[in-house]
Amino acid sequence: MGEEIAISLENVSKCFKRYARPIDRLKEILLPGKAYAQEFWALRDLSFDVMKGETMGIIGRNGAGKSTLLQVICGTLTPTSGKVQVNGRVAALLELGAGFNPEFTGRENVYMNGAIMGLSKQEVDSRFDRIAAFADIGDFIDQPVKTYSSGMYVRLAFSSAIHVNPDILIVDEALSVGDLFFQAKCMARMRQMMDAGVTVLFVSHDTSAVKTLCRKAVLLNHGELIGYGLADTIVEQYFTMKVEGEQFVIKPVLPDISSNFQPLENDKFLLDRKSTFSQNEVFRKKASFQRIQNGKANFANIQILDVEEKEISNLDYEQKIILRMAIEIHEDIEELAYGYHIRDKNGSDIVYSDSIIEDRNLKSVKQGEKYIIDWHFKISLCQGIYNIACVLSVPLILEIGKVDFCDFVPLAVQFTVSPRKGSRLYGSVHWENCVDVQKYETSML
C-alpha cells in the first residue's frame, strides 16, 4: 500500500449465514456436506482507497452495508473475501456504546479503551482529565456505564476516541445523540482534527453534512459500491436513486435572517438587567471550548431571547428574536467591534454581521464599563440545529494587517428551528420577494 494511502479495500465481500432454527447450526457441523443456512451478502466486491488526511463520506439507505463496511475496516469483522489494509491507528465510534463493558465504570472503560488502542497506563493517566472534561458527565464517570443515558454513552465514547491521537477517525451516526452544545462541540473538534490531517470516515444520512465535511464519498446499495467520487456528485446520485417502496426526502438547511441592533448605554440596564451579567455560569462553561481571549474585554453572557426577553432555544419559523451580548471592559480601548456568525450544525457559516458593517462600533470605552448589545432578528430557517459564534475585537489594523481578538467564542449559544408550515424552502438564504406577473398580450406591443 502506498505511503499516502490510509485505507485500501480490494474486492472486499462479507457474507453472513442465516439459519431458520438454532438447531440447524448444530446440524451443519455434525452433517458436513449439507447446507442448512441461507447466505446473505452484506458487502460484495468493494474496492476503493482513502488517502491520508482525506475525509470520506459513506452514504446509502438503511441496510446498504455502511455499518458492516466500517466494522470490516476497523477489524471487528473479518471479510469473507478480499483484502483490507489500514495504515495508522484507528479510533471508531460505531453503534452506541460499542467497545464499552456495561459492568465497568466510565473510568475503567476509558483505561480499557486506551489499552486496546495501545496506550500505556501512564499515557492514559496524562490524558484522563482532558477526556473527563470533554465528556462532561460529572460523577457518573465512576458509575457503571450500564446506568448511562444514550447521550452520556456518546459523550464518553467520543471523548475517549479523540484523545488517543488517532490517525483515522471513524464515526457512524453516533453524533446525532446528545444535546445541542455537545453536538456543536464534537463537530468543532472533528473539524480541528481534519485540519490537523486526521483521516475521517463519516457515515451519515445527513447529506448536507456529507457535502460540507467531505471531499469524496462512496454510495452503497444492497452491499454494492454504486458510486465513488466527489461528494457533491455522489450526493446527487443518491437523490436520483430509484428505490422501490422508499421515498427520499430532501431536508435542506435554509436561513433567512435580517438584522439590526440596539446598543444600550451602561446606566440604562444596571438595575433591571443585572441578571444578564450575574446568571452566566452556564454560558462560561460552554464558552470555554476553543475560546480565544486577550484580557482587554470579554463576553460575560450571550443569550437568545424572544420579544418578551425570555431566554429560548427552540424557535419557530420567522420568529422574531433578540441576540443579546453582555460585554465587560477590562482596559481602555479606543474602538471596539463586535459581531456574530450563525453556523449550521456542520460548522459552515450561514450568516455573518458585525458592528463594522453596521457602523456601530463602541468608541472610547473605559475600564470597568459594561455594555449590552441587542441584535434583533427576524429569522427564517428550515428545521435544523444551529450554533452562534461571537467575536469581540479591536478593528483591523491596516499597517499590521490583522485583527486583535479580545474575545472569540466559537460555541456561544445553540438553538433549533421547527419546520416551516406550508411550502418548503430551498437554497441557503431566503428573502422576501415582490413578484409582478403580467399576462403577455400582442396588443401590449
Textual characterization of the structure:
The chain is of the alpha+beta class and 445 residues long. It folds into two domains: 241 residues, Rossmann fold; 152 residues, Coagulation Factor XIII, Chain A, domain 1 (Distorted Sandwich). It contains ten helices and 20 strands. Helix 3 crosses helix 4 and helix 4 crosses helix 5. The chain is globular. It starts with a strand and ends in a 28-residue tail after the last strand. About 7% of the residues have low confidence. One of its GO terms (molecular function) is ATP hydrolysis activity.
Please sum up the structure shown.
It contains ten helices and 20 strands. The chain is α+β, with helices and mostly antiparallel strands and 445 residues long. Residues 242-272 have low confidence and may be disordered.
